[in-house]
Amino acid sequence: MSGRTYRVTGITLKGIPLGESDRVVTILTREQGLVRAVAKGSRKPSSKWGGRLEPFVINDLLLVRGRWSAQADASQRLQRIVQAETLQSFPRLGRSLAHLTAAQYLAEVALLLALPDQAQEELFVLLVEHLQRIEQAPTQEAVLPLLVHGLYHLLAVGGVAPSLQACCSCGWELADEVFFCPNLGGLICEPCQRAQQPNSLARLSSAVLQALGSLPNPTLPPLADRTLPLTAWLGAERLLRQILEQHAEREIRSARLLAGCYPTAGAAVVFPTVNEQGSPLAPTFSEGNSKRIGGRLKKL
Ligand SMILES: [Zn+2]
What we know:
The protein has 300 residues and is of the alpha+beta class. It has eight helices and nine strands.
């Protein structure tokens, strides 16, 4: 093996066409974080790669580093895949739109949070674990809590999960009345919400608070014991998504598909996205299927 050749374990997160028959694959690896590599000939019908470089397939990979200038940033450092031996795949993620959407959502979040040129063991292990759980969910309804759970854990590893115990403004312990403040990017207490523009706040319902409160645990309660409505999980998802989108300064595009997976429940989740004059609140993010409403405090 030459000095430019190395071996990693990685999960494919996305692929884009390159030229007539190649593909650039983005892979989250344990050892080197995000890697972008060319798979030569992978779009030919008789490609030697088969389905090995499709999204959500974990491979033992042999890569060769390209030659790039010292000024090239990570996005320009393309590598080449020499060998790929599949260790694990998740064929049952395709069994429903909700399963696939949840997997794509977590992959998109991992892409945002992962860094190149450094080990990403924790992020890799968490992503794989949550994909396994989503794959095993028996119904579309069972997928949503698992997606929100995985989302929170990825945000926690990325250092951007909101504090669920302390007000992000004053640091005091949160009590029964809890508000989400998009401008501060976190949860605030009742006294602190009075200092904020009321139409930029969302008061969290007890169901959303319960959903959020369960997220730091390593596992969720067994399916039979989950009593929260889907709207509570959608509210928690919306809140975590806004925090991430604010942090990343971009939209999580996979989240748009959630409305198609949970149309009835989604219609019940309201979120303040415009003020009383009908102008968008700052900062604005994906509005998804939220209702355009004015007024004062809204329940998530
Ligand atoms: Zn406070």
